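Listing S7. Sequence submitted for prediction.
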Amino acid sequence: MVAYEAEQRVRRPALRAGWLTQTFVHWPFRPEAVQALLPEELVVDEYDGAAWVSLTPFVMADVRLHGIPAALPGLPTFAETNLRTYVRNRGGRDGLWFLSIEVAFPPMLAARAIGAPYNPGTLTVSADGDTVAYAGSRWSSDASYRLHIRRGDPIEPTERDVWLTSRWRAYTRRLGMLWETPVEHEPWPLAHATVDVLEETLTTAAGLKEAPLGEPVVHFSEGVRQVRLGLTMPCVPRRVRQPS
């Protein structure tokens, strides 16, 4: 079972930030279709017999190195959008694999050094009452998206809600190795959301050519402000103890 709260403390983060005004759009796919997009060290993590791919636009706020206060004027705040799926390494540890990352702040491209698939682009996030609008276009290709949602009432997360939103490490691959980045933050405050507009070509640009198995599951969150990203390290698989 995926943990609702962070599985580890990130005591000396490499980066701190807030992830705000975040929407999650989750589609179920055939596991075989998603597995074909993963490196050999990772396997698809399934829920209800499906692999899940999520489009997650948000605002990356007050990005700073450890020790710099969030109140310091001029800290970078910018839009980012991830296309991600849910995986386990060969030792059984769950995490995220990013199929693409769109970002409106080119200095984040430095994370390509550890294999993070950042793409610079023009991204916008705006809110009008209960409606939140996101849009983005990649500079290097015609990959783009447009998403308008209406946020609803807060929810008490179910097991599936936690599984789809709470992951505490991300995997990347570079130099023939799998790398792991730990993350810690407070639990997501989740709300219902409904989609009014959704147009996107990010999934096909990532190599996912087939249609999803069903309609998307959608969440909205005002966000989390105490995000701590740890140092990225080569991944050493650890056996997960199975319940007896």
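Caption to Listing S7: primary sequence and predicted structure tokens for the chain studied. The chain has one domain: 15-233. The chain has a mean pLDDT of 95.
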